[in-house]
Design brief:
Distance between the termini: 5 Å
Order of helices and strands: EHEEHE
Strand order of the largest sheet: 2-3-1-4
Number of strands: 4
Length: about 70
Amino acid sequence: RYGVQVGLCTHESNAEYLREQLEDQGYFVTMRWENPYYAVIVGRESTLEDARTLQNQLRQDGYDTLIVTL
């Protein structure tokens, strides 16, 4: 599975804020601890092609992105 990382935050509160913003826009969002950062990841795509489509949508919404494996 693939997701699109839209943020790495040192403070959990910042990651939570970003997560809430994305959820308000209708995205499925998870957070995961990657010492020393909280990664904010959108989606749970089964193919790389679907992840690229999601990545393009997020970039159009103004986010910096990186496709990651889940």
